[in-house]
């Protein structure tokens, strides 16, 4: 961790957010959850935009889901998880929000292909190798003006070539490049990529206006 990231983490540690018990559990049981700085930005984004319907791809134990539901009390969360134990765990985590959350034990790719709902906020935090293949389906489920956030897009620095790509991740990194290339070029999205946590892309979807990059 570089000094700037350390400084940012120190500063944001003065704010109370997230569930420290879940963070400890995740660490102890090697469950990947969003990093603290990512969690902080996620809750701020949800709190600022108050999306009616949120889709989360990758529930894990419900850590980020809880953050989002806490950040916006009228939001409804649909969350997808392929692992049975995590799916069950997340239901316990989010028991208090039972009337505002719908859990799906499924393959996210199948869900997306068959989805005819639209969402105001999509948080993509599932299998990194599939971001590219999920993208067309995700664009189909975004409401006009929706926010689309994807975590881990910088892959510890491998995406930008800051560190060499680890063995067997070549194809994932190549696909992540293509994913970022498409969301940055798209006329329907305005996108930024932030070196927060493991890298976060944030896009806003404007279907009707067909945004251009020109002023
Ligand atoms: C990084 S974790 C999600 C962390 C969670 N968003 C959080 O920060 O609290 C990614 C999750 O995606 C799940 N996953 C992997 N492949 C999947 C798939 N094809 N469909 C649905 N979920 C999948 C994994 O089991 C894992 O729990």
What does this structure look like?
- It is a single chain.
- The radius of gyration is 17 Å and the shape is globular.
- Helices cover 39% and strands 20% of the residues.
- The model is unreliable at 211-215 (pLDDT under 50).
- Strand 6 (189-194) and strand 7 form a beta hairpin.
- It contains eight helices and seven strands.
- A seven-stranded mixed β-sheet has the order 3-2-1-4-5-7-6, sandwiched between helices.
- The termini are far apart.
- The protein has helices at residues 3-12, 20-28, 36-49, 63-71, 84-93, 108-113, 131-140, 170-185, and strands at residues 53-57, 76-81, 101-105, 119-124, 142-151, 189-194, 200-205.
- The protein is an alpha/beta fold and 215 residues long.
- Helix 3 (36-49) runs parallel beside helix 4 (63-71).
- The structure holds S-adenosylmethionine (SAM).
**CATH topology, what is it called?**
Rossmann fold
Order of helices and strands: HHHEHEHEHEHEHEE
Q: Can you tell me the number of structural domains?
A: 1
Shape by Cα distribution: globular
CATH superfamily: Vaccinia Virus protein VP39
Binned, the helix content reads 25-40%
**Uncertain residue ranges:** 211-215
State the CATH class: Alpha Beta
CA gyration radius, whole angstroms = 17 Å
Which sequence of strands runs across the widest sheet? 3-2-1-4-5-7-6
- Total beta strands: 7
Bound molecules: S-adenosylmethionine
Biggest sheet, in brief? 7 strands, mixed
Q: How big a fraction of the residues is strand? A: 15-25%
How far do the termini sit from each other? Answer: 37 Å
CATH architecture classification name? 3-Layer(aba) Sandwich
By helix and strand content, what is the structural category? alpha/beta
Mean pLDDT, nearest integer? 95
Specify the number of helices: 8
